[in-house]
What does this fold into?
Amino acid sequence: MPDAMLLDRRRDRRATGMAMATDLNEARDRDLMRRIAAGDEDAFRGLFRRYAPTAISLARRVARQPYLAEEIVQEAFLALWRNPEAYDPGRGSVRSWLMGMVHHRAVDAVRREESQRRRAEEAKASDVVVVEDPAEAVVEEVGAPQERETVRAALQGLPAEQRQVIELMYFGGLSQSRIAERLELPLGTVKSRTLLGMRRLRAALVGMER
It folds into this structure.
């Protein structure tokens, strides 16, 4: 028998063996899913042991953070335990469905982390600009610490809520973030009161100088 024919037969046997193994694995997985749907915890642990290493490896490749990858996999398997009926045998294997769920959650987690980091950076940049601006503006308007009484007199003409935040900032040395914490107000509210109060204060100081 020619060598080429022998090689072809070996390939065919190998392919047939792999196909049978795949079919057997899928049959086992689907049996585990049926048992999980019936509340079988041993079946759940068996499926977890079977695919958790592959799932964590996939989540780490996407998220690039080990702790986050572990959370993603735990959430995916928890979702499977809570709702095993979500798996549709007609749409593919248990393995492909589970890995697809892990990948989807990993992508969502990465986007969520990036969005939170971007918002934190924007808030930090915004806070720095707005916190430093009013205090420096008051110093420029007043000129020297001995003129603080002039500032206090001008503050009396401000609405109470605006006067409160400016006093805490200028005389108390607090940042807008700290003021928001102390007064239990949203940071945006403190910022808007500061800006409105500064406009009125400048106008009042100019009028007093005249």
Remarks:
- Confidence is low (pLDDT under 50) at residues 128-136, 139-144.
- The radius of gyration is 33 Å.
